[in-house]
Each structure stands twice: as structure tokens, then as C-alpha cells.
Amino acid sequence: IAVYRKVRARQAIDFPQLGLGVVAEVDDVVVDLVGVLGAVMPEPRVLDLSAAHGTRLEDDVIDTIAAATAKAARPQTSIHSEKDWRKEIAGVEMRRALREIRRIWR
Predict the structure, then answer these.
(1) pLDDT band (50, 70, 90) for residue 97
(2) Which residues are paired to 5 by β-bridges?
(3) Model pTM score
(4) Closest among 72, 101, 65 to 86, alpha carbons compared
(5) What's the longest Cα–Cα distance across the chain?
(6) Is 10 helix (H, G, I), strand (E, B) or coil?
(7) How does DSSP assign 46-76, residue by residue?
(8) C-alpha to C-alpha distance for 41 and 2, rounded to whole angstroms
(9) 22-69 confidence digits (pLDDT tens)
(10) Order of strands across the sheet with 30-38?
(11) Strand pairing of 30-38 and 45-47?
């Protein structure tokens, strides 16, 4: 299962504030989960999502991964949004992506 999330300031301009891709291999539980965070740092960053391995993406697992994603984000200064907002939205979008994966999976 693959999910891509993109946040941008306006629909008319395709300049992303954040890009997030998450790919899950699932069976009865999460076998593997890979995430890449882009547009908030100088280069895309592969995220450590190992907390999800062996789980069914329960809400507490999703919240833990979302918080870790926000912490891992290192936004560059942008004229379109504040750095703190971009860190926060990284966690919000990870939460949304994982919930979408869980919805598709189950």
C-alpha cells in the first residue's frame, strides 16, 4: 500500500510546503513501513518507522510515529510559511497517511 501527501500554499501554484510518501507491506500486521519526507529539508529524508513493525497501526502507534516525524523535520526558512508550522504539519500529514493506509488495508 502506498500513500503520498502533499501540502501547498495555494492550488494555483504547485510549490509544495511538504511532500510525504509512505509505503507499507502488510499481512496480519505491518511487515515493513518506509516513509520519505521531502520539501521541508534541503534533501528528502528517509524516516525511521520501525515502531510500526508488528502492529496493526493502532492509534497510539500512529501518534508515536507522527510525533517522531514532526521532531525529525528540519524545515528551511520559507517565505510561504513558518518553520514551526511546517514541523507540525509533517506530523499531521504522517498521521493522515498512516490512517489512510490502515483504512485501505482493513
Answers:
(1) very high
(2) 20
(3) 0.91
(4) 72
(5) 44
(6) strand
(7) EE--GGGTTS---HHHHHHHHHHHHHH--PP
(8) 22
(9) 999 999 999 999 999 998 777 899 999 999 999 999 999 999 999 999
(10) 2-10, 13-26, 30-38, 45-47
(11) antiparallel
d(CA 48, CA 13): 31
Could you give the CA distance from residue 4 to residue 77 in angstroms, rounded to a whole number?
A: 23
Buried b / exposed e along 64-75 (16+ C-beta atoms within 10 A): ebbebbbebbeb
| Cα 14 from Cα 59, distance rounded (Å) | 32
> How high is the pLDDT of residue 106?
86
pLDDT (0 to 100) of residue 17 = 84
